[in-house]
């Protein structure tokens, strides 16, 4: 573009109908390193510009085949980056202004002194190269600004993602800490309660040995049963929080579910609950501690039964999907309100007056121990479905 800066010669087309001028100009400019082409008509000049896209054009204002302003405008529309210098034998300030407005870069009066002429042409060349460099810099600046904006957006979204992940991790830690606290509490409680409980059990057994009256005997049996129940609750609490895991064995999930359901038979019958349990014949077994799995299902069944009135419907569906065994436990209870949906898996959250709020967090923790998940699949005023996913290959 610029002979001084890039070593590539500046190309210039000279359009003048006086052959003498063309020769003189060509000699002068070639000496200064320009690549010069000349022509004596506007038509040929336009064709050359179209063909070669020169850096500059030097044109006579008074050409036989076209007036200067029209030619200038056509040149600029053909090649907007081309610098056009106009020479004229006689001109006025008015014409000069008009030409500059139409896009001319320089206006020279003939006849010209060769050295001044060359300097003026060099001046236009320098100005042109500065303008082009300036434009390139501006384009680069725009490009960089866009790039920075894109980086910014990317950075913001990454920060957002990481913050969410951190928040999630923190709430998981809080849940685990609560479960650990629960284990500690349960162990202390078990110790405090079991001794008096043993005494109640012992004295009741002693009493029942000396009684013939069947009604009193019945009451004493009931006391013993309730004592057993309390003992069971304490045992489950301690186990839920910090039980040692026994070795995993091949477990048939449908079998575990049947055994978990059996515990609730008296309740189911008394409240005329319909239980539907569908499972395919060919189900893969999984490696697990059956009592841990049982805990998931007893918690879900317990909750479902607590939500349903007389004549409710408990549906259990089992199927495989990809590498998971999916178990759906649905009830016809009143559903979970949308604002409670996230809270129900947090330890100690309960909407029941005598609830402990540990059933679901413990069940979820066990599912996750097996790289599975426990979630609410759907819930409405017509009932709720919990989904347990357990990897079949675990
Ligand atoms: N099947 C269900 N239908 C409606 N709400 C449920 C169901 N299961 C659990 N919930 C809600 O989740 C809460 C937490 O359950 P859970 O952790 O088992 O504790 P708890 O049963 O002691 O309240 C319950 O208090 C109840 O509000
Ligand atoms: Mg519960």
Mean model confidence by pLDDT: 89
Ions, cofactors and other bound molecules: adenosine-5'-diphosphate, magnesium ion
The overall strand count is 12
Instruction: Write down the CATH topology of the largest domain.
Output: Heat Shock Protein 90
Sketch the major β-sheet.
Answer: 5 strands, parallel
Which class of the largest domain in CATH terms? Alpha Beta
What is the strand arrangement across the widest sheet?
Answer: 2-1-3-4-5
How much strand? Answer: 15-25%
Number of helices: 11
The gross shape turns out to be rod-shaped
**Which quaternary structure do these chains form?**
single chain
CATH superfamily heading of the largest domain: Histidine kinase-like ATPase, C-terminal domain
The CATH architecture term of the largest domain is 2-Layer Sandwich
**Overall tally of structural domains:** 3
N-to-C order of helices and strands: HEHEHEHEHEHHEHHEEHEEHEE
Radius of gyration, in Å, reads 47 Å
Distance between the termini: 70 Å
Task: Give unreliable regions as ranges.
Answer: 1-7
Helix content: 55-70%
Look at the helices and sheets and give the structural class.
alpha/beta
């Amino acid at each position: 573009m610029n002979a001084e800066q890039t070593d590539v010669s500046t190309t210039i087309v000279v359009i003048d109908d006086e052959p003498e001028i063309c020769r003189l100009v060509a000699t002068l400019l070639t000496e200064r390193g320009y690549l010069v082409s000349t022509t004596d008509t506007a038509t040929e000049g336009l064709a050359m510009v179209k063909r070669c896209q020169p850096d500059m054009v030097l044109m006579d204002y008074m050409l036989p085949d076209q007036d200067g302003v029209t030619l200038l405008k056509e040149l600029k529309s053909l090649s907007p980056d081309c610098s056009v210098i106009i020479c004229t034998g006689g001109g006025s300030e008015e014409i000069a202004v008009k030409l500059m407005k139409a896009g001319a870069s320089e206006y020279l009066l003939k006849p010209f002194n060769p050295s001044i002429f060359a300097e003026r042409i060099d001046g236009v060349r320098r100005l042109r190269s500065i303008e082009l460099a300036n434009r390139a810099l501006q384009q680069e600046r725009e490009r960089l600004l866009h790039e920075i904006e894109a980086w910014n957006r990317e950075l913001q979204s990454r920060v957002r993602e990481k913050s969410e992940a951190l928040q999630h991790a923190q709430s998981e830690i809080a849940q685990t800490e609560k479960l650990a606290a629960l284990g500690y509490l349960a162990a202390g409680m078990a110790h405090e309660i079991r001794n008096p409980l043993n005494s109640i059990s012992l004295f009741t057994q002693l009493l029942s040995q000396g009684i013939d009256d069947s009604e009193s005997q019945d009451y004493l049996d009931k006391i013993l049963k309730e004592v057993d129940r309390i003992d069971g609750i304490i045992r489950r609490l301690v186990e839920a929080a910090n039980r040692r895991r026994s070795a995993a064995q091949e477990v048939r999930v449908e079998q575990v579910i049947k055994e978990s359901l059996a515990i609730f038979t008296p309740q189911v019958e008394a409240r005329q609950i319909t239980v539907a349990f569908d499972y395919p014949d060919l189900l893969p077994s999984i490696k697990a501690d059956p009592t841990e799995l049982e805990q998931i299902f007893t918690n879900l069944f317990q909750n479902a039964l607590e939500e349903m009135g007389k004549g409710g419907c408990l549906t259990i569906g089992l199927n495989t999907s990809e590498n998971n065994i999916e178990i759906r436990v649905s009830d016809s209870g009143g559903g979970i309100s949308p604002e409670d949906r996230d809270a129900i898996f947090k330890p100690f959250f309960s909407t029941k007056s005598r609830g402990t709020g540990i059933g679901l967090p413990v069940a979820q923790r066990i599912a996750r121990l097996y790289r599975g998940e426990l979630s609410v699949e759907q819930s409405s005023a017509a009932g709720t479905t919990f989904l347990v996913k357990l990897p079949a290959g675990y």
